[in-house]
Automatic annotation (TrEMBL):
Keywords: Membrane, Transferase, Transmembrane, Transmembrane helix. It is a multi-pass membrane protein. Gene3D superfamilies: Spore Coat Polysaccharide Biosynthesis Protein SpsA, Chain A (3.90.550.10). GO terms for cellular component: membrane. This is Glycosyltransferase. GO terms for biological process: polysaccharide biosynthetic process; protein N-linked glycosylation. The chain crosses the membrane at residues 223-246, 252-270, 291-309, 315-335. Residues 3-118 form the Glycosyltransferase 2-like domain.
Length: 350
């Protein structure tokens, strides 16, 4: 087991934690200095005599620091069986780290995360942020995790090739790691740990509420954008065709106009999701066949719902179209994210 500590602009908490780790444990320790300022050099120089310190030339982000630590373990500790990540700001105790490591050996092959209990005086942005990411993670993965933002986690070194392929430079990397393990159907086990904050504003954390939240939620944001563009194209084209054939008094005219508009928007949506949203690396034939099946299924459901709303419930076509698209939005997202635009990842044999 190797301890990896990503560190950016650390203070006395890092020094104290390393001293405790050296005194109470025998694990190798790797610290990744993620481009901290020059005045922090004295801290890393002090620790360099006792642990391995790797320096980034600039601040690349926590995700990149974690990956740097993993690459270092591949080369310098090839026979170690696991890696445990722990934050540099003093939010994790040695006792909790040991609990996570113990769970690692009791759950071979699983990703172990130290889940904070969030009791007592918790910074409001941390509490709200975790609740939101927990909900989004469950929607995306169908896996319930109580703390998606915890930095205390242990994982087998056999997953390092896979971990290095996961996208993300900053805090979004930790969320993407969970999503990848859930998608690969690898067990995620939780260990309850203490919630430790320096103060009510969590001043020791370098998490940027707006920028890092956007990165964490980027997949669903991009999907919503691509869906909005496609839906707008679909809606405008649908209304245009309805107006063009307004003189044709047939209940099927709505269905025909809807099918034509859906085909055009589906082609647009496919290309946007393939190139910009999911960035999958499966072959194009696999993409096309799966997406075609989904598109046909969504089209049938779309047309059926639209027919019911307009001909049986007598809702105006323009309003019925909006209601139908909203109903099918999340269905489409979950199917595309989990079954169509998946990413093939490499991992050593388990």
């Amino acid at each position: 087991m190797v301890i990896v500590i990503p560190a950016y602009e650390p203070d006395h908490h890092l020094v104290k934690m390393v001293e405790n780790l050296i005194y109470y444990t025998n694990y190798p320790i790797v610290i990744v200095n993620d481009g901290s300022s020059e005045d922090k050099k004295v801290i890393f120089d002090r620790l360099r005599s006792f642990v391995d310190v790797i320096n980034h030339p600039a601040n690349l982000g926590k995700g990149e620091a974690m990956k740097t630590g993993l690459k270092y373990i591949q080369k310098q500790f090839p026979f170690e069986d696991g890696v445990v990540f722990i934050d540099a700001d003093g939010q994790h105790s040695i006792e909790d780290m040991e609990k996570v490591i113990e769970a690692f050996y009791l759950n071979q092959g699983a990703l172990i995360i130290g889940s904070r209990e969030f009791t007592g005086k918790i910074p409001i942005k941390s509490l709200i942020g975790n609740k939101i990411t927990r909900l989004i993670f469950k929607i995306l993965s169908k896996v319930a995790v109580s703390d998606t933002q915890t930095g205390l986690r242990a994982v087998s070194t056999k997953y390092i090739p896979m971990l290095l392929e996961i996208e993300g430079e900053r805090y979004e990397y930790e969320m993407n790691m969970l999503l990848t393990f859930a998608k690969e159907k690898i067990k995620i086990a939780e260990v309850s740990i203490e919630t430790i904050y320096e103060d009510s504003s969590n001043s020791t954390s370098h998490f940027r509420a707006v920028k890092d939240s956007i990165r964490i939620y980027s997949v669903i944001f991009k999907f919503m954008t691509s869906s909005a563009v496609s839906a707008l194209l679909d809606y405008v084209l649908f209304i245009f065709l309805i107006s063009l054939f307004a003189g044709i008094q047939s209940s099927l005219s709505v269905i025909v106009c809807n099918i034509f508009a859906r085909v055009v928007s589906a082609i647009t949506n496919y290309n946007l999701n393939k190139k910009c949203v999911f960035k999958s690396n499966n072959d194009n034939r696999s993409y096309g066949i799966k997406y075609a099946v989904l598109a046909i299924g969504i089209l049938c459901a779309n047309s059926l719902i639209l027919y019911v709303l307009t001909n049986l419930m007598f809702i105006p076509a323009a309003i019925a179209k909006i209601v139908t698209e909203i109903l099918l939005f999340f269905v489409s997202f979950l199917i595309q994210q989990r079954f169509i635009f998946t990413r093939k990842v490499n991992q050593q044999s388990i």
